[in-house]
Known about the structure:
Blueprint: H1 18-31, H2 44-76
Helix pairs in contact: 1-2
Amino acid sequence: xxxxxxxxxxxxxxxxxxxxxxxxxxxxxxxxxxxxxxxxxxxxxxxxxxxxxxxxxxxxxxxxxxxxxxxxxxxxx
Length: 77
């Protein structure tokens, strides 16, 4: 299976949380002083490093949200 990479010219696509994932990535980039559109003007290595960190941030935040939702469902039962 080919690896799908996200970037300024290749947006993220996918499951039901992809919109939230994009917002979290944008949130991380903004905290670092960048917009998604800024990545295309950066050296490739810098842009890849930022996207890698942003994707890790988004994945951790999504996991946190999912954990909280699971905990809440457990409490409500």
